[in-house]
């Protein structure tokens, strides 16, 4: 018994005649007729009452159709479960302290290993280390390598923070600024900047920090306001905003180096990602 025979049997029940079923299934009527006869022979029972111009499901046929629907539904469920399993096997649970290294890692991975899927979450370093060790995180992006014999680390990149401002700002002519230069000035900050939010708040205690969730709205507000904003040399906003001046920040916390870290016994898929970066 083959699944195609069951599909044909159900199609005959749904469309009423072998000819209509054959038309819907894009096969010839003699082919579907032979398939039905073979199925009846295998089951040892006639499934249809044959009249001069039509075939009608008999009681045995009705039972067979119900069974065929259940089998086909189970097969569909099985395929869905297997697809979901395959997706989970391709999915890497990635925890990161900031967006920029995550962009680099995912871009390089997708180019080298198409089909890889990341489930990403922003976390602080303490939670990331815990998640890595208790295996709720497959791959962690930290600001330091873990000095443990059970883990492997690879350097990803160093990110440097800058500030953008209108060209008429009193700071616009400087080749660099410090936190003291910026403290007390209002800033518009994108929410999804990871640990950088803490750096900004710690170093600018007297500044008004306006947080925007939507990147598109953030870009529009920056273009139409005198508020200062932060960018990095590794961010999605790596090009200076039109009409703005970009100045690097010198000071503690204004740069960060990131490392990708995983357990030594991680899956081959995770190890392949880590191996995209030199030791």
Automatic annotation (TrEMBL):
UniProt superkingdom: Bacteria
Gene Ontology CC annotations of this record: protein-DNA complex
One family name in Pfam for this protein: HTH_1
Keywords: DNA-binding, Transcription, Transcription regulation
GO molecular function per UniProt: DNA binding; DNA-binding transcription factor activity
Matching SUPFAM superfamilies: Periplasmic binding protein-like II, Winged helix' DNA-binding domain
Stretches of the chain forming a coiled coil according to its record: none
InterPro entries: LysR_HTH_N, LysR_subst-bd, WH-like_DNA-bd_sf, WH_DNA-bd_sf
CDD domains registered for this protein in UniProt: PBP2_LTTR_substrate (cd05466)
Domain HTH lysR-type: 1-58
Family statement drawn from the similarity comment of this UniProt entry: Belongs to the LysR transcriptional regulatory family.
Protein name from the UniProt record: DNA-binding transcriptional regulator, LysR family
Lineage, highest ranks first: Bacteria, Bacillati, Actinomycetota, Coriobacteriia, Coriobacteriales
């Amino acid at each position: 018994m083959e699944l195609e025979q069951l599909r044909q049997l159900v199609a005959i029940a749904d469309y009423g005649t072998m000819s209509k079923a054959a038309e819907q299934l894009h096969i010839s009527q003699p082919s579907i007729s032979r398939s039905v006869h073979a199925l009846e022979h295998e089951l040892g029972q006639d499934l249809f009452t044959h009249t001069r111009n039509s075939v009608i499901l008999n009681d045995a046929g009705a039972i067979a159709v119900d069974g065929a629907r259940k089998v086909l539904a189970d097969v569909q469920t099985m395929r869905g479960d297997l697809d979901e399993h395959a997706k989970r096997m391709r999915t890497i649970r990635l925890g990161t302290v900031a967006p920029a290294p995550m962009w680099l890692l995912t871009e390089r991975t997708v180019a080298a290993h198409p089909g890889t899927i990341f489930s990403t979450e922003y976390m602080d370093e303490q939670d990331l280390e815990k998640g890595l060790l208790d295996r709720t995180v497959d791959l962690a992006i930290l600001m330091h390598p873990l000095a443990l014999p059970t883990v492997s680390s690879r350097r990803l990149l160093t990110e440097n923070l800058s500030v953008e401002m209108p060209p008429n700002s009193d700071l616009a002519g400087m080749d660099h600024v410090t936190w003291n230069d910026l403290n007390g000035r209002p800033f518009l900050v994108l929410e999804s900047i990871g640990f950088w939010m803490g750096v900004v708040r710690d170093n600018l205690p007297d500044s008004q920090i306006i947080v925007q969730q939507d990147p598109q709205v953030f870009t529009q507000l920056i273009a139409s306001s005198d508020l200062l904003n932060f960018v990095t040399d590794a961010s999605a906003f790596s090009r200076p905003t039109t009409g703005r001046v970009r100045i690097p920040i010198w000071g503690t916390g204004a740069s960060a180096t990131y490392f990708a870290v995983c357990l030594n016994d991680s899956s081959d898929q995770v190890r392949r990602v880590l191996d995209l970066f030199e030791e």
